[in-house]
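Summary for the funding panel

The consortium committed to producing paired sequence-structure records for every protein in the target list. Below we show the first two records in order, beginning with the earlier of the two.
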Amino acid sequence: MLDWLKGKGDPTFWKEYLGNFEKDDPNLPTRYVIFDCERTGLDWKHDTILSIGCIGVTNDQIEIKDFFEIFIENKNEKHQNEAVEKLFKTHSHESVSELEAIMQFLGHIKNGTLVGHNTNLDIEMINQALKRMNLGKLKNNILDINVMYQRFKNLPEDEHHTLEELCDLFKIRKSHRHTASNDAYITALLFLKLKKKLKMK
């Protein structure tokens, strides 16, 4: 770890993450990791991630045991806005450093296919965190339920729907929103419905 911080070689957790893609077994069912991030804002270059929530889907079933949630320390006073204060006052948790959070996140997702809602921003922010650690970008395959819905309805690429709108369209309850883990669970429910309608394996 010390050698890596001094710019000598890659850390063990990154090597292990990359190693997952070398062990990919096509005979095993695809593991989808539905994820969501809470952030300080929408500027992927300057804002930071506050929390990450994930839940797994395998064989068309939500795997409750395949759950991950982590909260990240926010030391930037510039980003102490109302949304940040609300998140940290509402939810009792222990926060960790960005480095520790990314290490645990990579250890959890492995080579799973990442699924989210409007994933570009979350992926860019995770990649920015990796860049700050002098590491490469995420290697996982990525699916976006907004894109899946566009394909299902033959909609143009510039027509987007909020998570709330998609929940209304598919009659999914929206209670307990606005945490990464709860949004990930709601996204998992939407993913399963869209996966079935698109006849994805």
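The next record, for a separate protein in the list, is shown here:
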Amino acid sequence: MLTAIALTPRDQIAGHFGKAAAFAIYDQQGLLVDRIENSGSRELGCKHKKILQRQFTALNVTEIVLGNIGTRSLARLLQAGFKVSRVPPRTSLATFLGGGISKEALVAADQGRACKREKGACGCGTKKSVSATVKVGMLSPVIKGIGKIGGLKL
């Protein structure tokens, strides 16, 4: 039974699952087994959360400890069979490992934090703008490369 703990760069419990800098993997005796750096890059979009989930599964992680998590990510982890627990964000790792912090078991997706943004095309909560604002005196992005149309100079 291994536990993945979401961490900030200062080794505190991360306040957000997807934005955690790294995940420290500990065994039942409290020994560090592995450390997974969270890519979380914009190029990957929300795929980095799915990559993390696959890495946890490959390492046989059974529990994930974090400060907060969104409802969709929590639903995905619970559906995959992970035990998810919440502790106060920014709790030091040493304090948590010392046993001075109680964990709240998250057993339903609605215990996660509601998404603050509208759901985007990839489902990660980002909304991409597809409309471009055209101002007077500017060429529209659609006709930007065109120099002449039927003898008219643009």
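Regarding this second record: The chain is about 15% helix and 20% strand. The radius of gyration is 22 Å.
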